[in-house]
Amino acid sequence: MIRRGRQSKLKKIKVSGKHVILSLVFLVLGYMIAFSYHVTQKEIQKKQSSLSNKQYEKILDLRNQLIAQEETNRKLQKELNQKQAKVLENEKDLSKEAQVFFNLAEDAEKYRMFLGKVKVKGEGVKITLADGAYNPKVDNVNNYIVHELHIFKVVNELYISGAAAVAINGQRLTSHSYINCNGPVITVDGVQHPAPFIITAIGDPDVLSSAVNLVGGVKDQLVNDNIVFSLEKENEIIFNPIIGS
């Protein structure tokens, strides 16, 4: 009985020893798992922290680059605006100079036309002045003859109304032309022309004819002086340049 009791007691002690060992094993294993988890979490947090810092630094660097680029763009835009303003100013100056040159060229062309140095072609008017029918009852026959005064009235009115060129019996007038009356003939720059006198002018036909036909104007004055007056509008008149001086 005593031996069986000792065996039973020894058996209980062995069983308890196994439980203690298993408990220690599980305890150590749990500690190792917990420690490993804790270390792993620290590593993960460290990596995450390191990654976050790198991302922040990268974002900050990109932001600084963007700010610097925007500042550069503002400076370039300001410089561009200044250059555009300068270009606009230069264009205005050039346009003024171009207008001046255009006006000079236009004036030179007009002077050449007045001097008879260039060929002129265009529409205009043809005015014919003829001596009036002689009345034997009138003592002075000159009252029925076309004089240089009548020619001057027509020519001056045509020039004033914008005629570009004028000719008498096909002889083109210049700024230096002179007209003399010698009895029944008219001398233009030394060349004699008998009546009737055909005065042709290049310009706006409506304007020229309206100016000459004004009430109390050139036409009425000539008719009152017994001059036979007629006016026709022409679609094309050609004046060749004057050769020589």
UniProtKB/TrEMBL annotation:
Transmembrane segments: 20-39
One Pfam family named in its UniProt record: DUF881
Gene3D superfamilies the UniProt entry points to: Protein of unknown function DUF881
Coiled coil location: 59-93
Keyword Metal-binding: no
InterPro entries listed in its UniProt record: DUF881
Keyword Kinase: no
Domain of life: Bacteria
Keywords: Coiled coil, Membrane, Transmembrane, Transmembrane helix
Family: Belongs to the UPF0749 family.
Name of the protein in question: DUF881 domain-containing protein
Source organism: Neobacillus pocheonensis
